[in-house]
């Protein structure tokens, strides 16, 4: 039997892979934020567990499970004269905005309701400077009443 967290991650992967984006997206379930940035050829999207909490948020003290999932977008950016051009970084922001819009539109997944979406830090500076890879982690928090 799979856990609620595993079921949610699998459902998010399915929802992302059914989406329509400007770049072909194939999301995969993972347990690490990092892909091999040195050999990354195009774009990678990894969905992984990020956090878990229980809250007693309503007046009846009913238990509400909060599950956080990290959707990591990693994109190889072309280098111009040894530096990343601002236009390439801005293209990564377009992918971020598309993913946030898609996840917001599909607010209920596998019996869980989307509560928040957050992208912070916006870029991993080491990946950008050392490998020309833009890495943006999006944390999506879902609630599931019990």
Describe this entry's structure for a reader.
The chain is an alpha+beta fold and 146 residues long. It has one domain: 2-Layer Sandwich (Alpha-Beta Plaits), CATH 3.30.70.1700. 28% of the residues lie in helices and 38% in strands. The strands form two sheets. Strands 1-2-3-8-7-6 form a six-stranded mixed β-sheet, sandwiched between helices. The chain is elongated, with a radius of gyration of 16 Å. The relative contact order is 0.22.
List keywords for this structure.
alpha+beta, Alpha-Beta Plaits
Point out poorly predicted stretches.
none
The coarse silhouette is elongated
What portion of the residues fall into strands of 2 or more residues? 35-45%
CATH architecture: 2-Layer Sandwich
Query: Roughly how many Å is the radius of gyration?
Result: 16 Å
Major β-sheet profile: 6 strands, mixed
CATH superfamily: Phage minor tail protein U
The chain-level mean pLDDT equals: 82
- In the CATH hierarchy, the third-tier topology is known as Alpha-Beta Plaits
Number of helices: 3
- Seen as an oligomer or otherwise, the chain set is single chain
The strand line-up of the biggest sheet is 1-2-3-8-7-6
- CATH domain class name: Alpha Beta
Look at the helices and sheets and give the structural class. alpha+beta
Instruction: Write down the domain tally.
Output: 1
Order of helices and strands: HEEEEEHEEHE
Helix content: 25-40%
Query: How far apart are the termini?
Result: 18 Å
Number of strands: 8
């Amino acid at each position: 039997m799979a856990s609620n967290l595993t079921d949610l991650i699998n459902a998010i992967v399915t929802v992302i892979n059914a989406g329509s984006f400007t770049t072909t997206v194939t999301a995969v379930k993972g347990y690490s934020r990092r892909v091999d940035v040195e050999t990354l050829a195009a774009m990678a999207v990894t969905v992984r567990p990020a956090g878990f909490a229980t809250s007693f948020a309503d007046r009846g003290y009913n238990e509400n499970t909060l599950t956080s999932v990290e959707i990591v977008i990693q994109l190889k950016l072309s280098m111009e004269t040894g530096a990343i051009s601002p236009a390439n970084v801005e293209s990564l922001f377009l992918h971020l905005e598309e993913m946030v819009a898609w996840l917001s539109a599909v607010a209920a997944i596998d019996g869980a309701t989307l509560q928040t979406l957050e992208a912070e830090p916006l870029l991993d500076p080491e990946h950008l400077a050392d490998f020309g890879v833009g890495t943006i982690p999006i944390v999506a928090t879902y609630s599931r009443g019990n």
